[in-house]
Specification:
Blueprint (H helix, E strand, L loop, with lengths): L4 E3 L27 E4 L4 E7 L6 E8 L17 E3 L10 H6 L1 E6 L1 E6 L6 E6 L5 E11 L9 E11 L10 E3 L4 H8 L7 H15 L3 E4 L15
Parallel strand pairs: 4-10, 5-10
Antiparallel strand pairs: 1-2, 1-7, 3-4, 6-9, 7-8, 8-12, 9-10, 10-11
GO molecular function: lyase activity; peptidase activity; single-stranded DNA binding
Protein name: Abasic site processing protein
Family: Belongs to the SOS response-associated peptidase family.
Amino acid sequence: MCGRVIVDYDENMDVASGTELSAWMQQRPEGYEATWNLKPTQDLPIALTDHKTGERQLRYAYWSLVPIWSKELKTKFPTFNARSETVTEKASFKNPVKGRRCVIPVSGFYEWTGPKGKRTPHAIFGPAPVIPMAGLYSWWHEPGAGDDEGWHLTATILTRASAGVMADLHDRMPVFMSDELLHDWLDPKTEGDRLLVDAVSEAAVPISGQLREWPVAPLRGDGPELIEPA
């Protein structure tokens, strides 16, 4: 489960230096604003490779993948997360798996523990300033709009069974993207299949053991104070 994320990129964009992701993160995405409480259906930064030009892009997408056949942007069922175990079978996700894969570079995220009504949020961060998460994207077109207008880029974050630090917080965690597999994942010429998804999912386990977390106050509003230990 991943339903709230933090996006606070370094001013000089050296957050991913020395990694495969650095090629995509040469600058902040257009319209960038730092946020410490980004929710599904808001705009989420994603890294992708353009199908036609091969250009590496870092841009914003609507956080909830909308399949091309949907008649409206809002889906009936939540699609801000996609289970890695079934993503190659589900109608909404199986086509994006083949060649519309992306990485969501966040600074951190939240998970909740405790009984209903008294749940405690935990801020979670990785060993580096950016945590790359495996994702999928889709272009949704407004019915009735012209060919050159009404297009919306939408995306979802893959999840898997929890491991490492996440095991004590929730039974699901994001699929953290390993540097070794990032190039293949972002290459649209690499056809996505069950083997690729499983490899990316398994590579997330060692990363989960390097996470840092601490409880924070209930999330209200938006600002850096949200990640201060409670």
